């Protein structure tokens, strides 16, 4: 029987593509602005020109972002599949020990929280969407001080250790 209790475990859900669903709506908004300016505001005026200009800029940016997203879809699918395989095969690192060098997120600021366990550093923030654990102590996170006895499962991506599982010793 383990004397560690699992308090966080990341589940690969494959929701990365869901974040892209809103992009076509931005394109539709831009087209609607142009339609409004051309069909509803019939008289030539500075207001009509400003609305048209804004509509074309908005539509152009939405189109650009949509094209970039569509080009990245195969990479997103491949990354999600590889990530899921890595979790299922338990092909990640585990470190066990006490939390040290705990640095909470500054109050009233958007910043990172960090700590180390046996020389392995972890850094995360509430305001960045990414895979793994990211809940800071100021927002009822699990790591709150130095000296907590933990076992952390993590993987390294772009020289950053992302937390997949946190177990705290009872």
Walk me through the structure.
The protein has 170 residues and is of the alpha+beta class.
Number of DSSP E strands: 6
What level of helicity do the residues show? Answer: 25-40%
Low-confidence stretches: none
Summed over residues and divided by their number, the pLDDT gives a mean of 86
H-E string: EHHEEEEE
Radius of gyration equals 23 Å
Please render the helix and strand layout as text:
Blueprint: E1 4-9, H1 23-40, H2 46-88, E2 93-103, E3 113-117, E4 120-124, E5 149-157, E6 160-169
Antiparallel strand pairs: 1-6, 2-3, 2-5, 3-4, 5-6
Task: Give the tags.
single chain; 170 residues; alpha+beta; six-stranded antiparallel beta sheet; elongated
Question: Outline of this structure?
Answer:
With 170 residues, this protein is an alpha+beta fold. Helices cover 36% and strands 27% of the residues.
């Amino acid at each position: 029987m383990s004397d560690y209790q699992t308090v966080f475990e990341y589940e690969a859900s494959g929701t990365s593509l869901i974040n892209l669903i809103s992009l076509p709506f931005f394109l539709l908004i831009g087209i609607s602005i142009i339609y409004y300016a051309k069909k509803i505001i019939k008289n030539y005026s500075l207001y009509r020109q400003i609305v048209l200009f804004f509509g074309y800029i908005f539509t152009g940016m939405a189109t650009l972002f949509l094209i970039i997203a569509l080009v990245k879809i195969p990479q997103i699918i491949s990354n999600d599949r590889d990530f899921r395989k890595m979790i299922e095969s338990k092909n990640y690192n585990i470190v066990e020990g006490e939390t040290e060098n705990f640095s909470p997120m500054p109050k009233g600021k958007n910043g990172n929280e960090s700590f180390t366990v046996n020389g392995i550093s972890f850094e995360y923030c509430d305001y960045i969407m990414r895979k793994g654990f990211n809940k800071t102590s100021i927002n009822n996170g699990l790591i709150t001080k130095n000296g907590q006895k933990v076992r952390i499962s993590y993987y390294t991506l772009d020289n950053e250790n992302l937390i997949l599982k946190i177990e705290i010793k009872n």
